[in-house]
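Subject: Imidazole glycerol phosphate synthase subunit HisH structure
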Amino acid sequence: MSAIALIDYGAGNLRSVHNALVAAGADDVAVTADPDVVGQADRIVLPGVGAFAACMNGLSAIPGLIEAMEQRIRGEGAPFLGICVGMQLLADAGEEHGRHKGLGWIGGTVRAFTPAPGLRIPHMGWNDVVPSFAHPVLAAGEAYYLHGYHFADAAHVAATSSHGGPFTAAVARDNIVGVQFHPEKSQAYGLATLERFLAWRP
């Protein structure tokens, strides 16, 4: 059994996330697109960079992968971490380059930041993570963000940040947690977040 399945669907910063997981204490990380490996993993991590539609298409193009994720995560309760677009894919839909269906595990829609005078888009750099409630994986601090879209009207907001107004920094439901920030780029805070995920027993 592979301790962690780091899903490779052509849309994630895999090397950096892999190295960060190892630095956080993971001793068995399989970078994989194999549904059989995903179906036996203790924990599953879904990274993601780029456009929502391209990431969802990449995930959907691998036969049996979404079904294996559904079974292992939602059916059997394996701890799951979505990072950046990997978190956004949990939504019902994303509106980048048209409206596209997401995994639908957590209600909400991924929308663009609303342009405003003096507001830089994409949102890039260090910003707060303010937990909405106590969660074993999440803590207050500062993390690194890089995104032009955000998880709007999320059903299970676990932390917020602010860029021209509040936005969803993390979502959490049962054995599922997703973060908009990049733990692998967030230095000590990001490493501590991954350590908490590895220790999490939902």
